[in-house]
Amino acid sequence: MNLLNATIALFILVTLMNMISTNAQSKAAIFNFDNRSSERDWKIVNDGVMGGLSTSKFKVYEEETAAFTGLVSLENNGGFASVRTLLRNYNLTGFEGIIIRVNGDGRKYKFRIRTDSRFDGVVYSNNFSTIENEWVEIKLPFSEFIPQFRGRVLKNVPSIDPARIKQLGFLISDKQQGEFNLIIDWIKAY
User: CATH topology for 30-189?
Assistant: First the structure.
């Protein structure tokens, strides 16, 4: 190998190493579930607010994972269970979306974002599917979140402003009656 080829090979190797380093650093942890106090940061909101009978729990485990589990009931016009958390001092400007690592039950869920601290109001929602008993990483680009109010799609609402994200959460709905189990390893911005 002559000196020119060696120099080119070294340049390519350094460029690739920088790209790998940049990609590794381009994710920011939001929740790792690495302590029990994070369990208290999450709040359950089920269809009982409208008279429904669905139930759910959110628990953080020593294995540094969290589980969102429960039973969706369609009785009394119910049909949803959710959990959400308020963010603290997160500014996700410059990020393209959220990536989650989950192990599910084969059901469909929604990842939800709110840009204010209110209990009710506009929520940005993105659907994702799980594979039964298999860990998967799911990318949820901010550009694919749909603004909604109580399940109805809203028109003429601005896109998500990553600098204003205040709440994150998970929801199971869409008449998926029965038990559910979603294990969450982490939530990151990418």
Answer: Jelly Rolls (2.60.120)
**Would you list the domain boundaries of the chain?**
30-189
Residues in contact with 29: Cβ distance below 8 Å, sequence separation at least 6, in sequence order: 186, 187, 188
- How many whole angstroms separate alpha carbon 180 and alpha carbon 190? 27
**134 pLDDT above the threshold of 60:** yes
Instruction: Give tens-digit pLDDT for 138-159.
Output: 999 999 999 999 888 999 999 9
Residue 104 forms beta bridges with which residues? Answer: 132
What is the reported pTM?
0.84
- The β-bridge relationship of strands 66-72 and 28-31 is unpaired
E-strand ranges in the chain read 28-31, 42-46, 55-60, 66-72, 81-86, 97-103, 108-114, 123-129, 135-141, 146-149, 152-153, 167-172, 178-189
